[in-house]
Amino acid sequence: MGILRTAMLTGLWGVGGGAAGVGAGMAYLLGATSFVPLTKDDQMFKTKTWAKFNPRENPALKDDVIKVVPLSKIRPELRNDERALTLEFCRGVWSRWGFWAQSKIQERYDKPAGTDDNLWNTSELAVSKFDKGLRFSNHFEVVENVGDEIVVRCGGSPLEPGLRKSDGLIFLSARIDPEQQHAVFHFKSALFSSSAPKVEGAAAHSIPPKIVFLHEWYVRMLTESAMRNVKA
């Protein structure tokens, strides 16, 4: 929780302009992004990726941060290409100010042996193709990339490829609506314990309220910071 809290507060400090502006930063994110709880009917829970990493269908904290941007404000070369727009959105999530603090903390305090193949700097993530198998910051791994959707596993170290006590998936995508003349960005995430025994009838996740609170603001922040990558 310490890393998440520090990363979130560092980002809000920058958005709001100092300690007194943390509240202003939260207010800005509240107005700039939409945060929607997900139901089991969402398409992400019908994918092979979801079934692979949460085979016991354990309860998850699941939500979607949505950002709508007029096409006139999107970089011209991205306005008709969902694959390119999704990639630039993904690059922005992991290379802009929202993720900068966490990347530095992970590099300093969580860089064990066996992570030489990871990307550690946001400058590297800014130009990455996010191909399947990419690992970064000893906490994230791209487990699927179909062009218009990129899935990143989180919640633990890629050095632990099996089921985990702390696990999660992030589905990043961008959709272009020519009729409405806007682009819609989705940061869908689900946090769960993939290694926990399956409990019949269990509906609620066991993630502590403090983590739930920090999670909402952090995913809002990551989504909003990515906009600098896609806007003209």
Give a structural overview.
With 232 residues, the chain is of the alpha+beta class. 36% of the residues lie in helices and 22% in strands. It has a seven-stranded antiparallel β-sheet. Strand 4 (140-145) and strand 5 form a beta hairpin. Helix 4 (82-95) crosses helix 7 (209-225). The longest helix is centred in the last third of the chain and has 17 residues, at 209-225. It is globular and about 50 Å long. Residues 16-20 have low confidence and may be disordered.
Helical/strand content category: alpha+beta
With strands numbered from the N-terminus, the spatial order across the biggest sheet is 1-2-7-6-5-4-3
- Intertermini distance: 35 Å
Number of strands: 7
The unreliable regions are 16-20
Strand content: 15-25%
What is the H-and-E element order?
HHEHEHHHEEEEEHH
The residue fraction in helices comes out at 25-40%
Shape: globular
Mean pLDDT: 91
Radius of gyration: 17 Å
